[in-house]
Each structure stands twice: as C-alpha cells, then as structure tokens.
Design a protein that fits this description.
Structural class: alpha/beta
Number of domains: 1
Number of strands: 7
Strand content: 15-25%
Radius of gyration: 16 Å
CATH superfamily: Glucose-6-phosphate isomerase like protein, domain 1
Order of helices and strands: HEEHEHEHHEHEEH
Largest sheet: 7 strands, mixed
CATH topology: Rossmann fold
Strand order of the largest sheet: 2-1-7-6-5-3-4
Mean pLDDT: 96
Number of helices: 7
Length: 186
C-alpha cells in the first residue's frame, strides 16, 4: 500500500505542462495561469465547459458541479446520457462533444478537455470545435508523451503514466486545485 502511494507521490512531481506551441512551462506557473484564465473568464460572465469519456467523464461532471457550487462560476459538462445516446445515434460517437460545443460555446469560454490517452477522437473534435468558437482550452492527458491532445490546448497538463488510476487521480487533483483557488469568499 505504501509503495502505491509512494509511486503516486513521485508521479505528482513529474507532471508536465506545456503551452500551445509545445514549450514546457514550469508547473507552478501553468497552474497559476490556468486559475487566472478561469477567474478572468468568470469575471467576464463566461463559462467553463468540461468533456471526458469514462472515468474522465466522471471527473468532468464532478468538476462542473464543484465550479458552480463552490466557486460560483458557471460550468457545464456534456455527459448527459440522453444527450450522448442521441448524438451518438444521429451523428456518431466521434461528434458527441463537438455538437454541443458548437451549440453552447461562446467566445471567451474555457474548455477543459480530459482524456487519459489523449487520443480520443471525440475529445479532439470537441477541442477543435471550441477553438473555432474562440474558447480558451486547457487539456489533461497521460499515457504516451506525444499524444495529440497534449498539443491541442493553450495549456496542456501531461501525466507521465500508463495507469488509468494514476492519470485520473492526477487529473482530478489538478481540477480540484483549480476549484480551490477560484473560490470566492462571501
């Protein structure tokens, strides 16, 4: 058990952040920039959107609720089961995030795209749709260092692990940091 937590602790020290151009950014600076981006978007009346599949979908839904409940920032995830099955049936699964982003995203919104592998086509299409709608984009990925999602955001967080559990725990922790550092005092 202690070895497991030791590996996880070591992994947190190896998280990498990059800018859109692929330049590695100091993790502390990246986290501060992400929090500032979210705060700025919220101050302008914009929203935070989350997308993810499987465990990442759970993180997306959880974080959307935490942002509006705890930080009082408008946030939404596109993981409603009726919506997903409708869009999958009518357009194909690769479009399940692209279509709602095309409909609901507004310039200045922030998309947080979460994918353990960083190569899910529906996530990549969602990111492209957000870019077309002039949204800022934060990505979170893991597994292979050269995954395509890692190059798609304005800020990209990469977890250097092939373990779904470790990658998802790190993504959740980063998102919780965003929530904790954007909370407004009453």
């Amino acid at each position: 058990m202690f070895a497991y937590f030791g590996k996880l602790s070591h992994l947190f020290r190896k998280i990498e952040a990059t800018e859109k151009c692929g330049k590695i950014v100091n993790i502390s600076s990246a986290l501060k920039s992400s929090v500032a981006l979210v705060k700025s978007a919220a101050a302008e009346g914009n929203k935070i959107m989350f997308i993810g599949n499987g465990g990442s979908a759970s993180i997306a839904s959880h974080m959307a609720v935490d942002f509006w409940k705890s930080s009082r920032i408008k946030a939404i995830s596109f993981n409603d089961s009726a919506q997903l099955t409708c869009l999958s049936n009518d357009f194909g699964y690769k479009h399940v995030f692209e279509k709602p982003i095309e409909m609901f995203a507004e310039p200045g919104d922030v998309l947080i795209a979460i994918s353990s592998s960083g190569k899910s086509e529906n996530i990549l299409r969602g990111v492209k749709a957000a870019r077309r709608r002039k949204c800022s984009i934060i990505t979170m990925s893991g597994f292979k260092k050269d995954n395509p999602l890692r190059k798609a955001g304005d800020l990209n967080y990469y977890i250097p692990s092939n373990s779904y559990g470790f990658v998802e725990i790190a993504h959740g922790a980063i998102c919780h940091l965003f929530v904790d550092y954007t909370q407004k005092t009453a």
